[in-house]
Design a protein that fits this description.
heterotrimer, A alpha+beta, B mainly alpha, C mainly alpha, A: alpha+beta, 10-stranded mixed beta sheet, two-stranded antiparallel sheet, 20 helices, globular, disordered N terminus, B: mainly alpha, 70% helix, flat
């Protein structure tokens, strides 16, 4: 037993170890990071993997990634935590939550943190369409991460069975109607397959923007203080959507559930579905038939709203933490990582240079649908975002659901929604 | 106050007064065994000391919030750096002008009026059935009571699956009868009804147990006497069983009323208040306003309405039904 | 025991058939959920009798969210609440039942107020209190508003009142102070009520959702109900087989406990004589 001999050396060794350990721990910065999951696939595993890889390359920074549910849940959680004095450091929240977060005085702009030329050019390297919802008042409040547009998926087998060219999707409003008529299958009173399905639970306003953009009309101003829900072009767009189910009968009646739409597509309950490009990998993995992806049909114009989440930095972060957080965000949006994230999920890689990486080029060559959303970017507009965003979008959502259910005419629904929105935004227009 | 008197009437017949006139009992109450003199104030102190922990918790988490809610409804919502300012009745004005508030109130009343009688009627029926000599009643009891032990969240998710248009269980079963697929939760006319069905499914079994307990305490002599007199079973139920079950009904009624205002888990899971606010219940709307829009003053105002509603119902119950209850 | 008397043969048969229909209808949702959870996703919407059975959904669900942590949180939560309730309500009920102190009637009315005005409807204010106390996102924060339960006080008071005073006096004569009388005389006699109350409390708090949703932010404090909802509500394509598996998994403890102890469950309610 050699212990008695070591007796006087042990405390010294112990103290040395302790000192080393505490210096190591003192250098450890811990970042808490809330993120939502809005699309199918093993997202939490992927995010955890990224966090682990980042920690390996940056041993003095620890990233605690916390899954917080849907975008709504994550926003509520983040604000709740902020209001109780313990905000997260970073959160991925909807790009449209920008005004809400600014009004609550919860987040800080990135501009102050971008010191070097490299930083500044990094910040300029994102697609402008995504930056529209990320900047206001001359400052950048969010960095794009999981961004998307709406795309149209179609079942090639169903097209063939209906006598349509399986490689060509309808490209205008009229074509959607004529194709839809052929695709809708009925047996007796029951419809076994609908022509097209556009979900309307949760955030129907987003899908609605896919129709209004094709009608060349915007729903709000850049400053987020005015809305234009009752413009004739908007009412016309809503009328088209309502007609799909009530007049043409090629679209399920009533309000359609977002979460089950991909499954409806797999179960052949609908031949065409509109949903986020973020579901692309999920559809690729699970669709039991060949499918195609196309841009949304055009009318007087063409396009889609952008969607998805940005990184936000919460206030009250120490300088040390914000430097570490910036490192993390930059790491997550390097061309390689942005490409990897885009391939694994179907979200649009947020920087043009990500699409030029060899991995991405090969992926697009093997699987062209991946590039559809990117190509649609040049026609894309900002997602609906205003002050008191939750309330204003609720007013619009309620109106859309009422029109789809037939309890209000599109005109009445939009007029009521505009009135409500104007009332909510009154104090921001003084 | 009749309420206090009725409640403090325990089964030993005491009405807040010592029952036994025995001097030993009367004196014993006030004698501490260690000293020889009676100490009346010991009772008061001891009583309050025993009550104190519970009283503090209740004061902090029930009484104070109630008062604070009422006070908050007269102020504006603090936002960011702006503190709350006194605005008098402005919040109430805004509430009266808010069509969604009236919708939520209306929905909740309809929801309560539908779930409460149906649940009570069903649970009474179930108890009577299970109490009888019917085959397989153990299985039936199990089947009726099981939904109760599940969390409402779980129940709501399962039923969300069933209500799915086309391939959900409901549409599949109805499809066998040739009924076309229906968008149950996405249709403004059927959404609330769907939630009502879920609530009834969950709670009926729970109340059944209480009725079962009461039924089993009924003397069989009553049944025999009625049979001898040639009364029909329905007559027996209406004139004997039902009135004797009234105390249980009162208890069950309180629970059912509270649940119809308190339980909104299924709204959160299945419809989130939609479509177009047709399934918004009052507490759900309060939750949305308070924790989604962060308009805490308006949420307080709505809570005041909810509290007032519950208070009126409580009062109404005790005053009105108390008179009709037949204690054995 | 049975105050109803025997009906004629035909109505007996009809009644039995009707009762059976109702019972089967009642258990159908749960049975179908069970069926969906043990078969692969492709069969969740198609009832095919010989579909392959799999445990894969449960594995997927277990791995997709930290359910083991949620189980632990829930277990800690209900235990903490029940323990506190037993202590607080016993003391308060004893005070109401056997002590005549100033303000007793008024205090009792104020206690009964909580029967109607539950902490669940006071979410906004209670949340603010928790923030002020600095304990948001902790397990005690979920439990504190429920620890003084008016229902428990009411129930125990009724029960204590039925204890014969002679026992109380006998114990005092032997030199016991009030607390000892409580522990040696009243508590043992109220055992069935304690069991009934315990069952009600545990199942209520195991299944509680709204307040825990508001008060918890992180995995370390979330109970099962909130964890399940966050898991099931992602905007992604919903996979019903996995969700029903997760749902059953979170309800399993209570369900199994009930199946094993249903006699005791039902008996204790009856013996407690809640009328």
């Amino acid at each position: 037993m050699r212990y008695p001999k070591m007796k006087w050396q042990a405390p010294i060794v112990g103290a040395a170890v302790l000192a080393l350990a505490s210096t190591a721990m003192a250098a450890d910065v811990e970042l808490s990071f809330y993120y939502p999951v809005a699309v199918g696939g093993p997202i939490t595993k992927i995010i955890d993997g990224y966090a682990a890889d980042f920690e390996k390359e940056n041993p003095s920074i620890k990233v605690k990634a916390i899954y917080a549910g849907t975008y709504q849940d994550t926003l509520v959680k983040a604000l709740t935590a902020f209001k109780s004095g313990e905000p997260p450091d970073i959160a991925v929240l909807l790009s449209t939550d920008m005004f809400t977060l600014i009004d609550e005085d919860a987040v800080m702009p990135f501009d102050g943190l971008l010191k070097s030329e490299a930083d500044k050019s990094w910040a300029k390297g994102f697609y402008p369409a995504f930056m529209e919802n990320s900047q206001t008042g001359g400052k950048t409040w969010g960095i794009p991460f999981q961004r998307s547009t709406i795309v149209m998926y179609w079942n090639k087998d169903a097209f063939k069975a209906a006598g349509l060219n399986p490689d060509k999707a309808p490209d205008t409003w009229d074509e959607l109607v004529t194709d839809g008529r052929k695709l809708t299958k009925r047996d007796g009173n029951n419809v076994s397959q609908w022509g097209v399905q556009i979900p309307s639970t949760g955030f129907p306003y987003w899908l609605f923007q896919g129709i209004t953009t094709a009608n060349k009309v915007r729903l709000m101003n850049q400053a987020g203080t005015e809305t234009y829900f009752d413009k004739p072009a908007v009412i016309e767009a809503l009328q088209y959507w309502v007609d799909l189910s009530r007049k043409e009968k090629i679209h399920p009646p009533g309000v359609v559930e977002w979460g089950t739409t991909p499954k409806d597509f797999f179960e052949r309950k609908t031949a065409i579905m509109w949903t986020t490009t973020g579901n692309l990998t999920n559809v690729k993995a699970n669709a039991p038939f060949p499918f195609g992806v196309a841009m949304l049909p055009a009318h007087t114009g063409r396009g889609s709203p952008t969607g998805g989440g940005n990184f936000y930095f919460f206030k009250k972060m120490s300088a040390e933490k914000s430097a570490a957080a910036l490192k993390f965000v930059k790491w997550m949006t390097t061309p390689e990582h942005a490409a990897d994230w885009g391939i694994k999920t179907g979200y649009v890689a947020v920087r043009p240079d990500a699409w030029e990486t060899p991995v991405m080029k090969k992926y697009v060559a093997d699987f062209p649908p991946a590039a559809v959303a990117r190509d649609q970017l040049k026609y894309s507009v900002a997602e609906l975002s205003t002050h008191e965003n939750q309330r204003v979008t609720k007013a619009l959502n309620d109106g859309l659901q009422a029109a789809l259910n037939g309890t209000k005419t599109p005109e009445q629904a939009m007029k009521d929604a505009q009135q409500e929105a104007a009332r909510i935004l009154r104090s921001y227009n003084k | 106050m009749s309420v206090a008197r009725d409640i403090s009437r325990g089964s030993d017949g005491e009405a807040g007064q010592p029952l036994s006139p025995s001097p030993a009992a009367g004196v014993a109450r006030f004698i501490s065994p260690r000293r020889g003199r009676p100490r009346r104030w010991a009772t008061h102190i001891n009583g309050w000391l025993l009550l104190l922990p519970a009283a503090i918790m209740l004061a902090v988490f029930t009484h104070y919030p109630t008062v604070a809610t009422i006070i908050d409804s007269f102020f504006s919502t603090p936002k960011g750096a702006r503190p709350a300012v006194f605005v008098g009745l402005d919040n109430y004005q805004a509430m009266i002008e808010d069509p969604i508030f009236w919708r939520a109130l209306n929905n909740n009343i309809i929801y309560a009026l539908a779930t409460i009688p149906l649940t009570i009627a069903l649970s009474m029926t179930m108890a009577v059935v299970v109490n009888g000599k019917i085959q397989g009643r153990a299985f039936m009891r199990l089947s009726f009571f099981t939904p109760t032990v599940l969390p409402m969240i779980a129940v709501a998710n399962i039923w969300l699956f069933f209500y799915s248009p086309g391939y959900g269980l409901i549409d599949q079963v109805l499809g066998l009868f040739g009924v076309p697929a229906h968008n149950w939760l996405g249709n403004e006319h059927t959404a609330l009804g769907c939630l009502i069905v879920v609530a009834i499914w969950k709670d009926a079994g729970f109340f059944m147990i209480f009725y079962l307990a009461a039924l089993q305490q009924m003397s069989p002599a009553l049944g025999e006497a009625a049979a001898l007199e040639g009364a029909s079973r329905w007559y027996f139920f209406r004139r004997v069983t039902f009135p004797l079950l009234m105390p249980t009904t009162l208890f069950v009624l309180i629970n059912a009323i509270i649940n119809s205002f308190r339980l909104i888990d299924h709204v959160v899971v299945m419809t989130r208040g939609g479509p177009n606010n047709t399934t918004a219940l009052l507490l759900f709307y309060i939750y949305e306003i308070g924790f989604k829009f962060w308009d805490t003053a308006f949420a307080a105002t709505l809570t005041v309405v909810l509290l007032a509603l519950l208070a009126i119902l409580a009062l109404g119950q005790f005053v009105f039904l108390d008179r009709r209850i037949h204690y054995q | 025991m049975n105050p109803l008397y025997q009906p004629g043969r035909l109505s007996a048969a009809l009644e039995t058939a009707g009762a059976w229909c109702l019972a089967v209808l009642w258990i159908l949702p749960l049975a179908y959920a069970l069926w969906a959870s043990i078969h692969p996703s492709a069969y969740s919407a198609h009832f095919v009798v010989d579909a392959p059975v799999t445990a894969e959904n449960f594995v997927k669900a277990w791995n997709a969210a930290p359910f083991s942590r949620y189980f632990l949180n829930t277990f800690l939560l209900v235990t903490m609440i029940l323990a506190a309730q037993l202590v607080l309500c016993t003391l308060a009920a004893y005070a109401f039942a056997r002590f005549e102190f100033y303000g007793r009637e008024l205090a009792f009315i104020l206690v009964l107020l909580q029967l109607m005005i539950m902490p669940d409807v006071l979410i906004v204010e209670n949340y603010r209190t928790m923030t002020a106390l600095g304990i948001v996102d902790t397990i005690p924060a979920i439990g504190l508003p429920y620890m003084a339960s008016a229902f428990g006080i009411f129930l125990l008071r009724q029960t204590f009142k039925t204890v014969p005073r002679e026992l109380d006096e006998a114990a005092r004569v032997e030199g016991a102070n009030p607390l000892q009388v409580l522990l040696k005389v009243y508590v043992p006699l109220a055992k069935p009520v304690y069991i009934a109350y315990g069952l009600v409390s545990v199942s209520y708090h195991w299944n509680n959702f709204l307040w825990p949703l508001i008060v918890t932010n992180s995995v370390n404090t979330r109970p099962l109900t909130v964890g399940l909802q966050i898991f099931a509500s992602s905007d992604q394509g919903i996979d019903w087989s996995v969700i029903t598996a997760a749902t059953l998994m979170t309800s399993a403890p209570l369900l199994i406990a009930f199946l094993l102890f249903q006699r005791q469950f039902v008996q204790s309610f009856m013996r407690a004589g809640i009328r």
